[in-house]
């Protein structure tokens, strides 16, 4: 990776603008950003068809996404195969033994396995062509996603090195949240959505987890007890795992890597339900804006 791009990536991270600078669209808009369950569903959906399959070519139709697509990506990948397909936060990490292709779906992106000789649409920007006649196709109407190449330890990449723990690991728990929240006046919803605190707790899942834990989203992070943080950590894990198990939330644009939609949206209890009756106590749900994000909660159930 050239030095100019590294500086640009670091500046984006330091200004907190890497995938956080664009104001989110209203609830139910056409472009709801894929969150951790959607990205994990995509990883699972593409792995069996992509792992260890020889790559014959890379077709780049649009070279400028969030950042420039590496000009030598075709030369780098052709003749190799991906040996590991992993996820860190909302980044997909495809390693071929020489380096790692970093993919972020941005605000509206998707990855699908398609016939390599099939027609490309207006927003189909990159195809990674496989020897078996399939292609991994990156589609992104907003062009806010990215494909980057990194050689060396992936944890040291500028976009990854400051990330918090994965929420589904033992490193993330109530004691950890309590320790990091000391003295913080920031609203707890914004606190748990901070990728330096914990990765992958996007707006949908923050709303749902806080409702399940009975915590009001606007409560200052530093004024929550250890016991309540333990419950919140448990609910975050459960909500995310449930969403992964059913294939993500499917908010208009998202479809899993196998082309099948997810179904978690059917079980949402507060997100997107402002002014509707609470499913627990029937009190009309309150909708506010926190950190430019739609926030829905129950004034009776959440304190």
Description:
This protein is α+β, with helices and mostly antiparallel strands and 303 residues long. The chain folds into two domains: 3-156, MutM-like, N-terminal (N-terminal domain of MutM-like DNA repair proteins), CATH 3.20.190; 174-297, Helicase, Ruva Protein, domain 3, CATH 1.10.8. 25% of the residues lie in helices and 18% in strands. The chain is built from seven helices and ten strands. Strands 1-6-7-5 form a four-stranded antiparallel beta sheet. It has a four-stranded antiparallel beta sheet with strand order 2-3-4-8, with helices on one face. Helix 2 runs parallel beside helix 7 (226-245) and helix 4 crosses helix 7. The N and C termini lie far apart (48 Å). Residues 20-31 and 250-254 have low confidence and may be disordered.
């Amino acid at each position: 990776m050239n030095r100019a791009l590294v500086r640009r990536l670091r500046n984006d991270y330091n200004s907190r603008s890497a995938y956080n600078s664009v104001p989110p669209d209203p609830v139910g808009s056409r472009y709801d950003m894929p969150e951790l369950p959607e990205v994990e569903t995509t990883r699972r959906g593409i792995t069996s068809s992509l792992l260890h399959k020889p790559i014959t070519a890379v077709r780049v139709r649009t070279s400028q996404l969030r950042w420039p697509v590496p000009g030598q990506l075709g030369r780098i990948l052709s003749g190799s195969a991906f040996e590991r397909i992993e996820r860190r936060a909302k980044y997909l990490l495809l390693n071929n033994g020489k380096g790692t292709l970093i993919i972020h779906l941005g605000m509206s992106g998707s990855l699908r396995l398609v016939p390599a000789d099939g027609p490309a649409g207006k927003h189909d920007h990159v195809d990674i062509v496989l020897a078996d006649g399939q292609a991994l196709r990156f589609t992104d109407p907003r062009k806010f996603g990215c494909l980057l190449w990194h050689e060396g330890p992936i944890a040291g990449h500028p976009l990854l090195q400051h990330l918090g723990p994965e929420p589904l690991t033992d490193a993330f728990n109530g004691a950890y949240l309590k320790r990091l929240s000391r003295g913080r006046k920031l609203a707890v919803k914004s606190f748990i959505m901070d990728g330096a605190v914990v990765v992958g707790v996007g707006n949908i899942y923050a709303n749902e987890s806080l409702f399940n834990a009975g915590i009001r989203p606007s409560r200052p992070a530093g004024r929550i007890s250890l016991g309540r943080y333990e419950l919140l950590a448990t609910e975050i894990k459960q909500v995310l795992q449930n969403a992964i198990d059913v294939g993500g939330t499917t908010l208009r644009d998202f479809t899993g890597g196998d082309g099948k939609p997810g179904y978690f949206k059917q079980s949402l209890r507060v997100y997107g339900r402002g002014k509707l009756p609470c499913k627990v106590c029937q009190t009309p749900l309150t909708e506010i804006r926190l950190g430019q994000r739609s926030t829905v909660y129950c004034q009776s159930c959440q304190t």
